[in-house]
Amino acid sequence: MKYQAPKGTFDILPYGADEPWKISSLWRYAEETICKTALEYGYHEIRTPIYEQTELFNRGAGESSDIVMKEMFTFLDKAGRSMSLRPEGTSSVMRAFVENNFAQLGNVHKFFYIAPMFRYDRPQSGRYRQHHQFGVEAVGIASPAQDAEVIDLMYETYRRLGLQNLSIELNSVGDMASRLAYKDALQNYLRPYFQELSEDSQTRFDKNPLRILDSKDLKDREILKNAPSILLSLSNDAKVHFDELRRLLDDVQIPYQINDKIVRGLDYYNKTVFEVAAKTGGAQNALGGGGRYDGLIGSFGGPDLPGVGFGTGIERILQTMEAQKVSYPREARPLVLWLPLGNDARRACFNLATECRHRNIPAEIDLHSKKIQNGLQYASRINAEYCAIIGTEELNKKIVQIKNLASRRQEEISLDQAISYFSDRWTSTKE
Ligand code: HAM
């Protein structure tokens, strides 16, 4: 039997990947940049299980969301309980928030995570059954300054990763009162077109008409062009919030456009919603999105605290970096490859390589090659700076041949100076 990674998943490899963005050094670079940025903004890392009770996502993401209706990996555990692989992070983090009584520890909490998410969707470029998200959740602050901070953190992360040509689309879906008013206005507008709407939109007409605004169907989009704007139905509170958010974003020069058709695919949003896309991308160019979800914590049995956050797909960030030809620092390379020729030399090289490593000098040992030529080829493949060669003759004379792989210069030094030779060079490369 031939084994394969499940459909819609992929391996992240040290080398030999079929696409450059699947190389593990790039993932580590991006993840380190992301962690550093989030920590600098005062967000703390949180890790939750990759599966939860199915009911959590039904309640959080919402029964009528595509994620819950069509895309969850749901299974019964051995005790017959329905569990689901997490399709998104917000519900899990809020469950952890309530369960661990975070509200007792203070009023404001800011979390971030980098974690795999699972959505059973038709796989295509940029859309996977297992994808990875960088997400943040800021709990406790109702002020639009919190929304602005979250949007700035998202944008700053992209900037630090070298992404350009991004568009931030901003909208407000208002509070419950605004949405009830808008629901009527939208249904009244759409009713004469009902038969022309796509099947999905017809199903949403009664249950969740706002989601029709999200439709990708071309005919639906045509019909929606003249639909009333949700921004005209905002309650006073929601309007003040939105106007202040715009002022704050203007102050710190975050470029955005208002798009009153953005509603997002999850049911927990209210007031602010936003999406970021790379202008150069294909169909799956949504890099990330988020919004405010006041009321979600309360619906999980916690205190009535507000929250706002975003999630951004790491795959899509890395694909955009690749499309925009962003360069990133290469992996740390070994300073030296120890190349033993013969059994006795192997022992000497093993001791020297180990001593280098214990002194934090990146060192490799070639336990395979029997000839200098093969050893040097291996040294260039792993991008070592030096190759240190020891054979029987070198052992007898207590020396080591050192080849600089860039300059091709070779020199001979005494064995007992070898460690200080590399430790000096390692210190100077770091200065
Ligand atoms: P979302 O828009 O469903 O939001 O997902 C966030 C991001 O994850 C998307 O913009 C996209 O980059 C990436 N993504 C989603 N599905 C896939 C997929 N199948 N393959 C590859 N990438 C994908 C959320 O999940 C919310 N929890 C975000 C949030 C946090 N809102 C508030 N706090």
Q: Which features would summarize this protein structure in a list?
A:
single chain, 431 residues, alpha+beta, eight-stranded mixed beta sheet, five-stranded mixed beta sheet, 15 helices, 38% helix, elongated, binds histidyl-adenosine monophosphate
Counted by DSSP, the helix tally is: 15
Mean pLDDT: 95
- Ligands, deduplicated: histidyl-adenosine monophosphate
- Tell me, briefly, the overall form: elongated
Into which percent range does the helicity of residues fall? 25-40%
What does this structure look like?
The protein is an alpha+beta fold and 431 residues long. Helices cover 38% and strands 20% of the residues. The protein has 15 helices and 16 strands. It has helices at 24-40, 54-60, 66-70, 90-99, 144-160, 176-190, 199-207, 218-224, 236-251, 296-299, 314-323, 343-358, 372-381, 392-397, 418-430, and strands at 44-45, 51-53, 74-76, 82-85, 109-118, 130-139, 166-172, 257-258, 270-278, 286-292, 307-313, 336-340, 363-365, 386-390, 399-404, 410-414. It has an eight-stranded mixed β-sheet with strand order 1-5-6-11-10-9-7-8. Strands 13-12-14-15-16 form a five-stranded mixed β-sheet, with helices on both faces. The chain has a three-stranded antiparallel β-sheet with strand order 2-4-3. Strand 3 and strand 4 (82-85) form a beta hairpin. It is elongated. The protein starts with 23 loop residues before the first helix and ends with a helix. The mean pLDDT is 95. Histidyl-adenosine monophosphate binds at residues 88-90, 119, 121, 127-128, 131, 133, 135, 137, 265-266, 286-291, 309-313, 315-316.
